[in-house]
Specification:
With about 170 residues, the protein is an all-alpha fold. It contains two helices and no strands. The protein has a domain of about 110 residues: Helix Hairpins. Helices cover about 95% and strands about 0% of the residues. Helix 1 packs antiparallel against helix 2.
Length: about 170
């Protein structure tokens, strides 16, 4: 009785599902990381724009001041947009993490079932092997006992025949 083919096919399917969930999780992690880096870059750009405004105030440079204000405004707008995308990406990341962990647990449970089925098969094979040996030994003992009984019966019959034929010859 081999491990059920259905269990092995189930394990194959679960491994594929786990790989897909892992790839989705890794993709969501990478996307979340990229959005975080973009946010960091936007915040640095906003900071750079504010520094440009500050430095241009002392030099009376209106162009640098306007460029700094515009740079700061655009970077702040990008940062605000990135914040909402990061929140959605974090929610997707958490969902993909749970899905991946769930698929991994399912695969490990299937592996455990298969290992237990194989162990049960080995135990049963050992029992069958022992039963065969026990049967062989009992049959051997039975055959030996039958031979001994037959030999004893033949020897008794021989003695009885020998005594009977000797009494037939000597009618004393």
């Amino acid at each position: 009785m081999a491990v059920a083919k259905a269990l092995l096919r189930l394990l194959d399917v679960l491994e594929i599902e786990e790989d897909q969930a892992r790839m989705a999780f890794e993709s969501a992690t990478a996307e979340h990381g990229q959005l975080e880096r973009q946010l960091t870059q936007a915040l640095q750009t906003e900071s750079h724009g504010r520094r440009l405004v500050s430095s241009s105030a002392g030099m009376n440079s209106g162009t640098d001041r306007l460029a700094g204000l515009e740079l700061s405004r655009l970077a702040a707008r990008d940062a605000a947009g990135l914040q909402s995308r990061i929140e959605r990406a974090a929610a997707l990341l958490a969902e993909n993490r749970e899905l991946y962990l769930g698929k991994r647990v399912e695969r490990r449970q299937a592996e455990t079932l298969i290992e237990e089925a194989r162990a049960a098969e080995q135990i049963e094979a050992g029992r069958r092997g022992q039963q065969v040996l026990d049967d062989w030994y009992l049959n051997r003992l039975h055959r030996t006992n039958l031979k001994d009984l037959k030999t004893q019966a033949d020897s008794r019959a021989g003695k009885t025949n020998a005594e009977g034929s000797s009494s037939d010859r000597n009618p004393s």
